[in-house]
């Protein structure tokens, strides 16, 4: 997929939790399975994560009724603990996620290259919904 000419989309959230907890919940498969989906009618039954440069990750996102599923997968290009994660998805798109903590709040900024199938607004809304699920999951635990 050619994505070099497409402006990245950036989504953001502020999580009321210490950076250690945010980092753990973002990266450990047993936690990823609890937040990595955009709609309540979906879930993530499987997640693998080798958080290191060159490490691979894969999260299965699936409709709860079994009608459709896909793997969100790629390879890490940068991992700076508690600060930055960058990766390339299997379709070649690049993603960057930054974390900054201030006064017990972690600001997350996630930028990604959109794909060329779905409308930009739909992609932004879907990724933001997943990030909001993450925020809610961390703050409730």
TrEMBL record:
Pfam families: AHSA1 (PF08327)
Residue intervals of the Activator of Hsp90 ATPase homologue 1/2-like C-terminal domain: 17-139
Transmembrane segments: none
Domain of life where this protein originates: Bacteria
Family assignment from sequence similarity: Belongs to the AHA1 family.
Protein name per Swiss-Prot or TrEMBL: Polyketide cyclase
Organism expressing this protein natively: Hufsiella arboris
């Amino acid at each position: 997929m050619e994505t070099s000419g497409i402006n990245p989309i950036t989504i953001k959230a502020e999580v009321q939790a210490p950076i250690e907890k945010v980092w753990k919940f973002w990266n450990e498969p047993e936690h990823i399975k609890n937040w990595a989906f955009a709609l309540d009618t979906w879930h993530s039954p499987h997640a693998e994560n080798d958080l290191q440069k060159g490490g691979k990750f894969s999260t299965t996102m699936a409709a709860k009724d079994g009608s459709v599923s896909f793997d969100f997968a790629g390879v890490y290009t940068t991992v700076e603990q508690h600060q930055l994660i960058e990766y390339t998805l299997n379709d070649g798109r690049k993603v960057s996620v930054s974390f900054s903590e201030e006064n017990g709040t972690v600001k997350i900024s996630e930028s990604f290259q959109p794909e060329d199938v779905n409308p930009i607004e739909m992609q932004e809304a879907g990724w933001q919904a997943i990030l909001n699920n993450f925020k809610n999951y961390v703050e409730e635990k």
